[in-house]
Predict the 3D structure of the following.
Amino acid sequence: MTRLRRAKNGRPVHHWRRDVVELAALFTAVAVADAVANLIGHGPDGPALLLISAIVLVATAAFHTWWARRHGHAPPASDTGARPLPAAQPAGPAEEPDAGPSVLWRMRTTVRDEPGSLAALCTALADRRVDILSLQTHPLGETTVDEFLLRAPGDLAAADLTRAVAAAGGTGTWIERADAHDLVDAPTRLLGLATRTALDAAELPLALRQLLGRCTIRQSPVTPARAGHGAQAVPVEGVLEDTVMRLRGPEGGVITVERPYLPFTPTEFARARALVELDARLGPRVPVGQDVLTLPEGNAITVRRADPGDLEAAKAMHERCSARTLSMRYHGPVSDADRYLTHLLSPRFGRTLAVQTASGRIVGLGHLLWDGDETEVALLIEDDWQRRGIGGELLTRLVAMAVEARCESVYAVTQASNTGMVAAMRGLGLPLDYQVEEGTLVVTARLDPAPAARRLPYGEHIAQD
């Protein structure tokens, strides 16, 4: 069996050269010892020779020790034998046993654009056991805005973080709690927002809000009275003024984004403008899909997204509704109802669900409207189709859309006599706040992520009990 095979079988490998050298050293030592003994016994210089012999033996022992350490533990390159693996070590630094739960923070601060400024910030954060998960820089000439996503110990307060950053040279520091959605890196988030905007025109305000954080977004459509100068109010490239940016809307109107607590950077302005330009190039669009529901009495209805193409059918439903139904919905003169429809059906200002019968007639509309940094829900059900659970079904789906859009609450404006709308809001099972303003009832529901799980994808057929 060859030496290589013995090595593969796990047997030790012997080297004959080392054995020969050790045997020769042993014979040499014996010969020297014999010669020394003869000289000591028969010569006059016995003590001197004995001392020399001791020195030679010590030197020989030292040489042998050096040789063994050099060649006895260093295997040759051809040695492929199995060896014991080193003890497993945990990857990364060991966690402290007393480390508590961590907290995610989003933080922005401004530093001078000079070497070492960012390093000072990172050192200050590291001294407080803060982990930097992501970092974006926004150059502003002589200064730079650094945006961090941080994981900090749970017992570290926001005030302690801001003081540490200020001591390291940061100014104008802003900080707020983050969540799991912020763990997505910036390029991935931008691609996701662009995809949502491309699929649904109603996603533009939501995409801008998620891109820029907490902000107020208002869209001003072009009216016939202002069509002459409305297009010139905001240039094509938009306007950036500290905490306010104005962008040319897809239909020529104005999109105003305001964030009073933090100025916008040129980078954020460019990203927002790119999303708006993408929306304008794609034009009005609504996702295609529908759900077929079976009412308790056996009637089959279809719930789908509505768009401006449903304007005539929606007007026809208005004509079939009673004056009382229209007044409870629009809180004003019935003659004003039709002019709202163009705005309500536009995907630029929210999402609308239509309830359609088997014959193609629209008998109900549900609206989810973006109202600045708030969200409004509104329902209109044709008189002959009321009290059948349609309003509750529409409201549940609208609330699920609001949860999906990460809205914190929705509100409905109605009259105290509209018992159907009040009952539908109560049927959501969410905490409600009631306010009466000039005889009008405003019911606000604080949202919970749970309703999103109950949302049915379009295309499923279900039977309602």
Remarks:
- The mean pLDDT is 76.
